[in-house]
Amino acid sequence: MQAPARLLLCGALCAVSGAALAQSSVTLYGIVDTGIEYVSHANAEGKSVVRMPGVTGEFPSRWGFRGNEDLGGGYSAIFTLESGFNLRGGDSGQGGRLFGRQAFVGVKSPYGTLSFGRQYTMTYLALLGADIIGPDIYGLGSLDAYVPNARADNSVAYTGSYAGVTFGASYSFGRDSAGTGNSPGQGTCTGSVAGRPTECRDWSVMLKYDASMFGVAASYEEQRGGSTAAANFFDGVAPIPLIDAADKDTRAHVSAYANIGKLKVGAGWLNRRVETTSIALPDVRSNLYFVGASYFVTPAFIVDGEVYHIGNNEHDTRATMGTLRTTYLLSKRSAMYAQASYLGNSAKARYSVSGGGGGTTPAAGTGQTGVMVGVRHSF
């Protein structure tokens, strides 16, 4: 082949290769976050503890891959593989799963996104706008540990948006296929059992509206029982066995937020109901309320806080918790923070202020203070 022909062929191949590469991308990303925490009355004897928490600070540490390939016509193939880890020891989170936070593949189109795998349920996604503190060590997870861990295996999910309105739905054939549990005290529920289609099933729906100045959201999620499943209310009372496929653990939520200049405020309500087929086990419900605010004092200095209250009449347990957090942005990717929280328990309640990995349950009726300073980096 003559030199000019070889040059033309090389140029054409390079152009085709470049076009193909331009239509596909894979991104490595993550958050590395930890610090030092103090918790008072961290056991039944009233002793305090100073530690490096294992689960979260401002955000749980994670790393992952996110991919997108343009298929043309407004369609694209997507995937996410996300792994959680505990920075203090380098071990994997979510029961040791390699990609325990997210592992899904799907198709994004002008009509919405359809995805398959281990994914967040609509409970988690619907709360993102109004829950100011989020998956913080002193956040909603201290009173309901499932909220920041609301994921399901074997799930099919759809989300679609139009003119600010977003609808989402998910369905899981068995919410815990690895048998490691999705939140503390909930047992395991592998599901996908022949002849028992509702065992360990999980389904959820979400409807929300987001505008430039405000947003509102609502969601509903239902989990069915299985032979090794349980429902923990995280108040010191023993988890409720959910051993029948007809047993239900449901959460309904409504929330709203508003942006006013440098200030953002959010509030919401989360209702939980556990209903079993056992005559010996009464139905149990709880109501969790929250209101929070975030303010940019300067472009690099943020002050935010949130107040929570939960009540459970059947267990006669209640708790009120307040969290105040300050964050200083060292750069677009790095920050330092300091935060403190106080939780007051009713006479029979044993909620813990810290969602940092367990091991800090106080005596019944005892209040707790949690203080943490930390650093995080995003990549």
UniProtKB/TrEMBL annotation:
Database matches in Pfam families: Porin_4
Cleavable signal peptide: 1-22
Main location (coarse class): membrane
Limits of the Porin domain: 12-347
Subunit structure comment from the entry: Homotrimer.
UniProt topology in membrane: Multi-pass membrane protein
One GO cellular component term noted in the UniProt record for this chain: cell outer membrane
Keyword annotations of the record: Cell outer membrane, Ion transport, Membrane, Porin, Signal, Transmembrane, Transmembrane beta strand, Transport
Domain of life of the organism encoding this protein: Bacteria
One Gene Ontology biological process: monoatomic ion transport
GO molecular function, one term: porin activity
Residues that span the membrane, as ranges: none
Gene3D superfamilies, A to Z: Porin
Protein name in UniProt: Porin
Cellular localization per UniProt: Cell outer membrane
